[in-house]
Amino acid sequence: MSKVRVGIVGSRFQADCIAGAVKAIPEEAELVAVASPTKGHAADFAMRHGIPNAYSDYHDLLRDPKVELISITAPNRLHAQITIDAAKAGKHVVCEKPLCITLEEADAMIDACAKAGVLLLYAEELFFAPKYVKAKQMADEGAFGRVHLVKQGEKHSGPHSPWFWDVEQSGGGAVMDLGCHGIAFCWWFLGKPKVKSVYSHMATQVHGDRTQGEDEAITIIEFENGATGMVESSWNRPGGMDDCIEVFGDKGQTYADVLMGNALPTYSEVGFGYAVEKAATTKGWTYPVFEEHWNYGFPQEMRHFARCVRGKETPIADGETGRVVQEVLYAAYASAGQGSKVTLPFRPKGVRKPIDLWKNP
Ligand SMILES: NC(=O)c1ccc[n+]([C@@H]2O[C@H](COP(=O)([O-])OP(=O)(O)OC[C@H]3O[C@@H](n4cnc5c(N)ncnc54)[C@H](O)[C@@H]3O)[C@@H](O)[C@H]2O)c1
What is the predicted pLDDT for the residue at 207? Predict the structure, then answer.
């Protein structure tokens, strides 16, 4: 069958990951267009990745008949509008995490894609990270008996772009940015059970001069099957990105560290080019990674999504997945605001952004 023709909206950090991922699966997909509003960025990106068409307005990309599937790598506040516009233009959508800002947006995105008969795919690459997939396969085989606790943590020294720090544009801090991965991970790992309750403690420990958002949080999720998920999210960890899980059952446990666990323990007095995402230095002891995109699961994710577009696979991460995460995000912020557990379903209407539930409970 023909390759799925992908257009990328956005041209910076995550756009590079997606472009690299698509180029790693040439049998399934190809890059045909990019759109980014900053003058020259789309053209530079197109040149760097060998993409034939570059637009400064994403509406033009949506009018390009070559594009079948778009990947949205624009800031969170734009995800809903771009998705709805793409659905109207008949394009399938891969939306980066978090799905959007509000639950009303999530509903509108799912609705627009369903009405247009296009796929809404939720880009949670942890469902494809090889180590995490292996851990889940073992758990599903019964290796750990009844799994009763799953932990996921994502921590680094803070985002690379100013909009993440501005809660008006991002919707919240480290939980919105990183916690969404852990929420999705625990839910997926345990077989997508209903969420019963959420408890979260949030604080701004280090970056109060830059953001009103939380830069540190612990979120505990109680699932209907009795298992617990625990998600650690931090923008206060220098030394590069940290992405780890721990899984505990009554017959065993496993641990996985996506980045340092696959790295080369290295000492250099002079430094070198690149160690790992968000590492401030390459001097002294560092943990340079190799095959970074592969270890995260980005090419495997895009391969799955391309195959979904061709009807060869059924999505394991879609708009509904994003909406489950979004509801837990709401509950986490509300819990931090109230200082108590929040039970689900939790769908307050008219919330402007999730962090408001923490700041103005
Ligand atoms: N899956 C992951 O692990 C992962 C990692 C990083 C970022 N993300 C997500 O990807 C999205 C983008 O994050 P990023 O780190 O690439 O941010 P970034 O700031 O590096 O890039 C954002 C891009 O969006 C573009 N943009 C802004 N307004 C636009 C518009 N109106 N139309 C089209 N493009 C527009 C910018 O020009 C820029 O190219 C966010 O939602 C983020 O949460 C996911």
Answer: 98
